[in-house]
Design a protein that fits this description.
Main location (chains A, B): membrane
Oligomer: homodimer
InterPro entries (chains A, B): AH/BAR_dom_sf, F_BAR_dom, FCH_dom, GMIP/FCHO2-like_FCH
Number of strands of chain A: 0
GO biological process, one term (chains A, B): synaptic vesicle endocytosis
Keywords (chains A, B): Coated pit, Coiled coil, Endocytosis, Membrane
Radius of gyration of chain A: 50 Å
Largest sheet of chain A: none
Shape of chain A: rod-shaped
Subcellular location (chains A, B): Membrane, Clathrin-coated pit
Amino acid sequence: YHNMKHGHLSTKDLADFIRERATIEEAYSKSMTKLAKSVNNYTQLGTFVPVWDIFKTSTEKLASCHSDLVRRLQELIKEVHKYGDEQIKTYKKTKEDVSGTLEAVQNIQSITQALQKSKENYSAKCVEQERLKKEGATQREVDKAAVKSKKATDTYKLYVEKYAAVKSVFEQKMTETAQKFQDIEETHLLRMKEIIESLSNTIKEIHLQIGEVHEEFINNMTNTTVESLIQKFAESKGTGKERPGPIEFEECNKSSAVEGIKPRKRKPFGLSGIMKKEKDTESVERSLNQLLSRAKQTRLGENEFNLLPIKPEKGNEK
Amino acid sequence: YHNMKHGHLSTKDLADFIRERATIEEAYSKSMTKLAKSVNNYTQLGTFVPVWDIFKTSTEKLASCHSDLVRRLQELIKEVHKYGDEQIKTYKKTKEDVSGTLEAVQNIQSITQALQKSKENYSAKCVEQERLKKEGATQREVDKAAVKSKKATDTYKLYVEKYAAVKSVFEQKMTETAQKFQDIEETHLLRMKEIIESLSNTIKEIHLQIGEVHEEFINNMTNTTVESLIQKFAESKGTGKERPGPIEFEECNKSSAVEGIKPRKRKPFGLSGIMKKEKDTESVERSLNQLLSRAKQTRLGENEFNLLPIKPEKGNEK
């Protein structure tokens, strides 16, 4: 009966264990979400930037796997609590069912004590009778002792018989009860094993999902080649694929002279790309980037490095 | 050049990311160790107790996997820092190497400005000359304008030639430098990819180890059958495999009567197992447990349930 109660303690312990595990997983998941967000604070410049997206996505997915685990562990805890409540009902019912056994136990205890006492009494009376005989006491005394001895013998024999009857009932009740407790214990352990199986299945599934997230990360990294990163960077920073042509002598347009000189927005020469903001410091960077990007693109298989002079666009000079 | 510096920032970011991940794993590992220890606080009574050992071992191993990960991530962070230091050296060296290119950039900037000005001047002088002609100015004025126009044309032509020369040097330097920066960028990205590969390999290995811990847990749970748990419990709580025999009437030993009655330690009857402490409350539990354990053992295949009466051991009665 005590062990049956320990079964309920084990159920509570299991719920505690799962709850604690869920708490750990939740903390881990939250930290992972924070880590994924911290990627936003990293430099958003340079060739490496697209790689952070891969890290971010992967870290978010890891966080999500662990929060899935938390959700499923919490469902499992509810199941464990429900089982714990069922256990208490079973215990109450069982306590009533085995009350007859408790009586049988008490009976055998009292009959055993009585039997022991009657045996001691019989033994004492028997020895007393012998002593009187040996010491040559009066016949009256010896007879009196013999009567007492006879009475003690009868009582002793009665208790031997009574004991046998009580023992038989005790054994039957105990066997039944032991069987009942064993059945309860088996059902309990089977239920606990089911819960643990559910727990390990959940953990195993999430573990597989985490493995998939890792695989995806590895694949994404494999697909993110050095070439593709440089290509992306060149495309975002580059000023065009064609090398600016030479600047040639342009004859003055004498016809326009009659209307006088109007300040016009004109496309300045062929090196427009790097000349637009020639007076601010950006121009150095820009021209470096422009040629840098062209050189990159060339190496990346774009072999149409245009070395032909580009004629000034006369149409725009009008 | 700026992008090259961003490469170093990315390296620092990567180190930060790995450090943060290591911190998360460390917290997780510590929580798992704590969870494994908390198992000690669970009830140490009942049939379920051996299962907690499986939980404890498994949780300790999980903690150990994650602390292994922490150790390896910390090693990786050292590697990343080392690489970061190497990067700075490369940058310093490169800055010196490309100083000639900066000069070429400045040259093309100033020549472009000069060319633009000379063209505007040429255009203005040319228009002025035409205007004077059309407006019928004096020959002297027209001649003067023609001289100025000729001079502006020569200057303009000179700058067109100069520009071509400077542009050629600029293009050569820029191509070389772009190639150098591209090489540096490629080497950098390759190194970053190597570090990330090392990171994902580590995570993958630990993930496999964690999977093994889960498998071991599942196997241990499968091997821990309900029968074996009940068997273990019965063995620890049981009082023996034989059912106590009946208590029979014992003839008084008259020969001992002569020496008088001495209080002797005698083996009390056959039900000794449950009678030893018959007056304390434990006896009820003990007798229950005794028969409970016997009933269990019977069901577990021990079919030698001894129903034969055990004779009181007369040898001990002497």
